[in-house]
Inverse folding.
C-alpha cells in the first residue's frame, strides 16, 4: 500500500512539474492581463500568426493598430463591419471607400465574433453610420452549430449598441449563394432568404436602413450569378460594382436619418 501511494505522489509531482504545453495549457500568450495583447510575430505579420489567432477568437488584434490611427477629431462617415465579403470589398471597389469610409471586415467571421469586436472596431471610432453585413458564415457554421435566433440576437445586440451611441444603422442583406465549397451537401439559399426577410423587417422596426444586395446579385435559384462571383459565394469586381449603387443609396438614406437626429 505504501508503495502504491508513493507511486501516485510521484505521478502527480511529474504532472505538476511538466511544461504547460504537456499539461494541455496553452503557453501563449502568458496568462493574465497586459497593456498590449497584440504581440508581433517574428516577421511582423502577426495577423498571420496562428498562435495569436488561437488566443484571439474575435480577432480583436486585426484592426487595433489601424483604429489607433483614426483621428478622433475627424471621425469616419461610415464603418463597414462584416466578414470576407466586406473585407474583400475594400480592395475590389476602392471607389466606394475613401478616408471617410472604413472597412472592418474579417474573413470567415460570424455575427458573435463581430459583436465581440463591435465596440472597438465601430463604436470607439464614432462614425455617423455603421454598415453591418453578417450571416453567411453563421449559416455555414464557421464557429460551430448555431440557430437563427442566436444570429438574430447578435444582430440585435450590435444594433442596440449603435443606437445607444447615436450611430445610424445600415443592415446589409446576406448575399446570395446556393452552395458552400467547403460544405457541398449544405443548401444555404433557403436559410438566406428567411434571414433576409427578418433583416428587412427588423430594419423597418428599428428605423434602420436595409440595403438589399441580394436582389441585385441573385440568380433564379438563389445562387450568386456567375458573372458576379465565380466561386458562388464571394462577389468579384463586377459583383461589387453592382452592389455599389445599393450601398451609396443606403448611405445617403442613413445620412439623412443622422441629420434628423441632431
Amino acid at each position: 500500500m505504501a508503495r502504491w501511494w508513493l507511486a501516485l505522489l510521484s505521478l502527480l509531482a511529474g504532472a505538476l512539474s511538466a511544461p504547460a504545453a504537456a499539461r494541455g495549457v496553452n503557453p501563449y500568450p502568458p496568462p493574465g492581463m497586459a497593456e498590449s495583447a497584440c504581440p508581433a510575430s517574428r516577421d511582423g505579420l502577426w495577423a498571420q500568426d496562428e498562435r495569436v489567432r488561437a488566443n484571439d477568437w474575435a480577432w480583436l488584434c486585426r484592426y487595433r493598430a489601424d483604429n489607433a490611427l483614426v483621428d478622433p477629431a475627424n471621425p469616419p462617415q461610415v464603418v463597414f463591419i462584416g466578414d470576407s465579403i466586406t473585407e474583400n470589398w475594400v480592395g475590389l471597389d476602392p471607389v466606394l471607400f475613401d478616408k471617410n469610409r472604413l472597412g472592418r471586415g474579417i474573413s470567415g467571421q460570424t455575427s458573435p465574433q463581430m459583436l465581440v469586436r463591435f465596440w472597438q472596431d465601430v463604436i470607439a471610432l464614432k462614425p455617423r453610420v455603421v454598415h453591418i453585413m453578417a450571416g453567411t458564415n453563421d449559416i455555414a457554421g464557421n464557429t460551430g452549430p448555431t440557430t437563427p435566433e442566436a444570429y438574430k440576437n447578435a444582430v440585435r445586440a450590435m444594433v442596440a449598441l449603435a443606437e445607444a451611441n447615436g450611430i445610424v444603422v445600415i443592415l446589409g442583406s446576406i448575399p446570395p449563394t446556393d452552395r458552400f465549397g467547403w460544405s457541398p451537401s449544405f443548401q444555404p439559399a433557403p436559410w438566406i432568404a428567411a434571414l433576409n426577410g427578418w433583416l428587412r423587417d427588423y430594419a423597418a422596426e428599428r428605423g434602420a436602413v436595409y440595403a438589399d444586395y441580394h436582389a441585385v446579385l441573385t440568380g433564379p435559384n438563389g445562387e450568386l450569378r456567375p458573372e458576379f462571383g465565380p466561386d458562388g459565394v464571394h462577389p468579384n469586381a463586377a459583383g461589387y460594382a453592382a452592389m455599389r449603387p445599393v450601398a451609396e443609396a443606403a448611405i445617403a438614406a442613413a445620412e439623412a436619418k443622422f441629420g434628423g437626429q441632431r
